[in-house]
Amino acid sequence: MLSYGIHGALGLFMGIGLLMLILLIFGLSAGIIPGLILVFVIYGAYVGYVFGGQRSSSRLAKMGVIAGPFCGIVASFYLDSVVSYPVIVAIAGLIFGLPRIKNMVTLSVSGASGGAMGYGMYVLGENIIYLLNNSGMRGSLLIPFIALFFFLLAIGIAGASIATGMYFAQGTAYTRREIPRFLKIARNTGVALTVLVLFYPSIILVSIAHYASTSESVHIEAGNEKTILYVPVLLDENGEVLEMFEKPAITGNATTAIIDTDYGKALEISGSGVIGINMRQTHGIPEKTQEATEKFMNGFTISTSDSTHYGDIKGSQTVDIWVYSEYDGPGLRFSVSRDNGWGAVLSLYTEEHRRLTEGWQVVRLSGGTIMYD
């Protein structure tokens, strides 16, 4: 059974390696369905030959031609879905089990289990990468290799699961068969291509893998006389103050408290001299969909502002906030940032040092959403 699993993993590496090389050269224009036909034809031909010789190789290669379109349709409609990977591998197993019902059921169940475990390994690896990147190890040369290991594990488990299902379906042990030299070369080349091509997305994942986050920064120049200022806080979708305001990082001589005002909740800052107050809160691993990005970017409000849907702000649009100062004269710089963790950040800020007057006043923030690599 171990040999079935090993060769199943190698067979899928061969197909995936060639597919990823084609996608790297031609992009998605190469097509998902033709790509998956290629993957499963190579997989079926290799696994079939190793387990049953030329006749079995030819039969499973033909099954790969059938499996490709069905799996491609699922991938096209549910590419970002959690269930897509297990379903694709289950469908492939189902078709490779044709025409016997018992074999179809065994291989589909085995494929679904392997697909789920493979996807689980990918998610585990992603969590580990995010954890390492956000714990001070960003830039370590070890992290891309950890990402590569989990990418390979996710693919290998899926390939091994279908082949293991063949072992149980056939009810026979693997018989050692001499593999032709050309097939060994093709296998080794496919595995090498998979490792080399997957190393690129491993580096990309490591370079962008950081948690979604929200931050607010306040810089005040108040002189030697003690003064009190009220600046806005950030509220979540339920109208609750974000947790980051409970323990702000403060430099200078100042204290803070959350208070209620006529304009909404605010951060009361009491102090003198040059004061810096920074708050930052992380939100875990971001979902990589447009819908999730829009929901995250618009999932907060600035407490003393009437504006909403900040994630829709583009370019140099503005947002007005209410700020209170006990006396004339304090200088204020204020900024808010919302980073979705994978390429979009909303920044709103005072463009210059704003000199405040006594009482409530409107302070204008500029900025918008920008994309980064």
Describe this structure in words.
With 373 residues, the protein is of the alpha+beta class. It has seven helices and eleven strands. The protein has helices at residues 2-26, 32-78, 84-96, 101-137, 142-170, 181-208, 290-297, and strands spanning 213-221, 227-232, 234-235, 249-261, 264-282, 301-302, 317-325, 331-339, 344-349, 354-355, 359-371. Strands 1-5-2-7-11-9-8 form a seven-stranded antiparallel β-barrel. The chain is elongated and about 90 Å long.
Measured as a percent range, the helix fraction is: 40-55%
For the largest beta-sheet, the strand count, sense and barrel status come to: 7 strands, antiparallel, barrel
For the largest sheet, list the strands in their spatial order: 1-5-2-7-11-9-8
Number of helices: 7
How many domains comprise the coordinates? 2
SSE run: HHHHHHEEEEEHEEEEEE
Low-confidence stretches: none
